[in-house]
Write a structure and sequence with these properties.
Blueprint (H helix, E strand, L loop, with lengths): L1 H34 L10 E3 L6 E3 L9 E9 L6 H18 L5 E7 L6 H12 L4 E5 L6 H10 L3 E7 L10 H16 L10 H4 L5 E5 L4 H7 L2 H18 L10 E5 H8 L9 H12 L3 E5 L12 H19 L8
Parallel strand pairs: 3-4, 3-6, 4-5, 7-9
Antiparallel strand pairs: 1-2, 6-8, 7-8
Subcellular location: Endoplasmic reticulum membrane
GO biological process, one term: protein N-linked glycosylation
Protein name: dolichyl-phosphate beta-glucosyltransferase
Length: 336
């Protein structure tokens, strides 16, 4: 049955993009009214502190940075995979704090309407490390990975903002690769040279730069181990992405991406796609906004429990068609 569905998807992929684009054009006005409200309008929302029972008001991406780095982790029914990865993250950050006096961080877990104990796991880490270090946003119902990350980005305090998946497929230490490359680009932009002190990173946050973790270097091995119809399906998706967003980033779907605060502010106040293809929209927005994009190889491991299904693949096609029509017709405006 999986093979049959894969073949059907491959045959229908191009026509679905066209059909869905036409449908989108017809129903777009109603959709636009619902999804265009992306400005920050949550001044009365608060983080919950389970230790003091006090409420901490949401910060805004428009506020000055208060931390060096923010990690945004979207979590949907991750009760079992999240604890081990959070332990790895917190241990890494504790070591960096011990080595670097100016280093500061926060971890934002965005519970995307989980029905298991994901929020209980997250609140346990707040109790252990404090609400200054770990924070939880409860979305109430499932909105999609893209929307969960958008919410986290808009309420982060970091100069650098890193989104990463809750499954721990990428080692947290790989953030240093992205961090290093962003700093090189930003320092060059600011004409700071090689003798920049670490505390000057607050200026780096003002330079829009995006770094994309990539698994493209692992593609040859992946092709050899996957079933043939999955490879066909992936190649078909890559072709549609290329037609939609254009060249530039080979692996748009790796869930390990870092942005300076300025880049995150410009991108995540404009992102409209709420689920799987928001990554492709980010690439498109970077091109439209002139934000430099870096693609950096990271270590990656296959983790059991993938949530990608035939249904999600079909939804990806819908989102790509929606994005193509929205931007090509000018119905989706970009705000700076």
């Amino acid at each position: 049955m999986d093979l049959l569905w894969a073949i059907i998807d491959l045959l229908l992929l191009p026509s679905l993009v066209v059909i869905l684009g036409l449908i989108t054009a017809i129903v777009f006005e109603a959709f636009r009214r619902r999804c265009n409200n992306h400005t920050l309008n949550e001044a009365n929302q608060f983080f919950e502190d389970p230790n003091s029972l006090k409420q901490v008001q949401f910060p805004s991406i428009y506020d000055p940075a208060e931390k060096y780095i923010s990690l945004i982790i979207p979590a949907f029914n991750e009760e079992h995979r999240l604890p081990a990865y959070l332990d790895e993250i917190m241990n890494y950050f504790q070591k960096r704090v011990a080595k670097e006096q100016t280093f500061s961080y926060e971890v934002l877990i965005v519970d995307d309407g989980s029905s298991d104990g994901t929020n209980k796991v997250a609140f346990e880490f707040i109790r252990k490390y404090s609400i200054d270090k770990v924070r939880v946003i409860l979305l109430g119902r499932n909105h999609g990975k893209g929307e969960a990350i958008r919410k986290g980005m808009l309420h982060s305090r970091g100069e650098l903002l890193l989104m990463l998946d809750a499954d721990g497929a990428t080692k947290i230490t790989d953030l240093e690769k992205l961090e290093h490359q962003i700093r090189l680009v930003a320092e060059k932009e600011l004409h700071l040279g090689d003798a920049v002190a670490h505390d000057s990173s607050s200026r780096i946050s003002d330079v829009p730069v995006a770094a994309f973790g990539s698994r493209a270097h692992l593609e040859e091995n992946a092709l050899a181990t996957r079933k043939w119809y999955r490879n066909f399906l992936m190649k078909g998706f890559h072709i549609v992405v290329l037609l939609t967003a254009g060249p530039g980033i080979r692996d748009t779907q790796c869930g390990f991406k870092m942005f300076t605060r300025a880049a995150a502010r410009n991108l995540f106040t404009n992102v409209r796609l709420k689920r799987w293809c928001f990554d492709v929209e980010i690439v498109h927005l970077c091109k439209r906004l002139g934000i430099p994009m870096l693609e950096i190889s990271v270590n990656w491991s296959e983790i059991p429990g993938s949530k990608v299904t035939i249904r999600s693949i079909i939804h990806m096609v819908w989102e790509l068609g929606l994005m193509s029509v929205g931007y090509r017709t000018g119905m989706w405006n970009i705000h700076i």
